[in-house]
UniProtKB/TrEMBL annotation:
<feature type="binding site">
    <location>
        <begin position="122"/>
        <end position="126"/>
    </location>
    <ligand>
        <name>UDP-N-acetyl-alpha-D-glucosamine</name>
    </ligand>
</feature>
<feature type="domain" description="Enolpyruvate transferase">
    <location>
        <begin position="7"/>
        <end position="405"/>
    </location>
</feature>
<dbReference type="Pfam" id="PF00275">
    <property type="entry name" value="EPSP_synthase"/>
</dbReference>
<comment type="function">
    <text>Cell wall formation. Adds enolpyruvyl to UDP-N-acetylglucosamine.</text>
</comment>
<dbReference type="InterPro" id="IPR050068">
    <property type="entry name" value="MurA_subfamily"/>
</dbReference>
<feature type="active site" description="Proton donor">
    <location>
        <position position="117"/>
    </location>
</feature>
<dbReference type="InterPro" id="IPR005750">
    <property type="entry name" value="UDP_GlcNAc_COvinyl_MurA"/>
</dbReference>
<dbReference type="GO" id="GO:0008360">
    <property type="term" value="P:regulation of cell shape"/>
</dbReference>
<protein>
    <recommendedName>
        <fullName>UDP-N-acetylglucosamine 1-carboxyvinyltransferase</fullName>
        <ecNumber>2.5.1.7</ecNumber>
    </recommendedName>
</protein>
<keyword id="KW-0132">Cell division</keyword>
<dbReference type="GO" id="GO:0008760">
    <property type="term" value="F:UDP-N-acetylglucosamine 1-carboxyvinyltransferase activity"/>
</dbReference>
<dbReference type="GO" id="GO:0051301">
    <property type="term" value="P:cell division"/>
</dbReference>
<feature type="binding site">
    <location>
        <position position="305"/>
    </location>
    <ligand>
        <name>UDP-N-acetyl-alpha-D-glucosamine</name>
    </ligand>
</feature>
<dbReference type="InterPro" id="IPR013792">
    <property type="entry name" value="RNA3'P_cycl/enolpyr_Trfase_a/b"/>
</dbReference>
<feature type="modified residue" description="2-(S-cysteinyl)pyruvic acid O-phosphothioketal">
    <location>
        <position position="117"/>
    </location>
</feature>
<dbReference type="GO" id="GO:0009252">
    <property type="term" value="P:peptidoglycan biosynthetic process"/>
</dbReference>
<dbReference type="GO" id="GO:0019277">
    <property type="term" value="P:UDP-N-acetylgalactosamine biosynthetic process"/>
</dbReference>
Amino acid sequence: MNKIMVEKSPPLRGNVRISGAKNSALPILAASLLGTEDIILEDVPKLKDVEVICEVLSSLGAKVEFLDKGIIKINSKDINNYETPYELMSKMRASFLVMGPLLTRLGKTKTSLPGGCAIGTRPIDLHLKGFRALGAEIDVDHGNIGAYADRLVGDRIYLDFPSVGATENIMMAAVMAEGETIIDNAAMEPEIVDLANFLNKLGADIKGAGTSSIRIKGVKELGGATHSIIPDRIEAGTFMVAAAITKGDIVVENVITSHIKPVIAKLREAGCQIYENGDKVRVIGADEIKAVDIKTLPYPGFPTDMQAQFMSLMSVSQGTSVIIETVFENRFMHVDELKRMGADIKIDGRSAIIQGVDSLMSAPVKATDLRAGAALVLAGLVSDGVTEIGDIYHIDRGYDNIEEKITKLGAKIYRV
Ligand code: UD1
């Protein structure tokens, strides 16, 4: 099993280009099942999760071609299979996003319960609530879920929580339903807007994406389009924390700064200097990192996907900080790993109380989930000795070329 080794780093310096967003690429690739003409996607990040969803598309009968770097061509004219194989489903929760497109395109879809990061029970009740409201019959047995509908008819759907995946899945199911669908208390993440923009390019009629109320007027069919994936705000945030934790000076390129406002605000509170310039952000770390409190929330709040990375930063801050995780109920698995490296963290329900320490020390640790893996790389950059990170397949699921990018900034990080 591969491991990533991280040596204690000098302050990181230089420029790093952010890749396309994983959480945009995955739903957009799933949505490519809806079009009957060629679709070209640009700036698709090179990630294990992208490979998996492309395998899912191929298994359903779509033609998927990897063209130049970051460019994928998909043709879904002849999709003929409505069942997603268990092996692929169990690898990645986002595979569940093909259900909405298949339901509306083929009138039926069957899959096993989704896998992915073990950061909570992660139910799918809201996805199913939406499908039912559109007229689908849902059949759950022996770990399989089927959804069937001769015709889908638009309806008004209220989400009890603004779930990203449920908003996307319902939006994709509704694009070819008869009449109008309104999703209330919809997720407002930039990735939802990217998906809606893509679907509209294919010929859909979606308004209000990015607000809490999305209106979808059903159309008869969708065609093709060329679309560039938005930059990954979580990868950008991770590199910004890398600058902060190593007291470095990094210019992060290819970012949409309005997408990372909470990360910018919290890094400034922690004492970093941040300069925004078009699609670039320069982060200069502070000599002393101030302790700041964080509460994760749906967008535009502080992203849960940046919680673990900030916890690494707070582990070496001057003072005590409290991090409250409100989105997932079990997203503190990195805490035990950080404690092995000398961090002083106590968990109380959904809160973590972090007492900053002067230094961390290397230890063999495990990437318990994707963002936890990133947090351990960041902690490794400021730990005495060489940190050995296992279970790195989690990191490969979501970070495009992480070693190369950090190495270019002056760190010593390699795979064994
Ligand atoms: C997406 C992101 C993930 C991010 C998360 C929250 C992708 C591929 N993944 O995951 O990186 O951490 O948004 O920003 O885009 N919930 C329900 N019922 C449902 C669905 C969700 O109760 O039917 C709950 C979940 O258990 C969780 C919360 O809603 O507590 C948020 O989950 P959701 O927004 O759906 O996250 P994902 O779409 O899985």
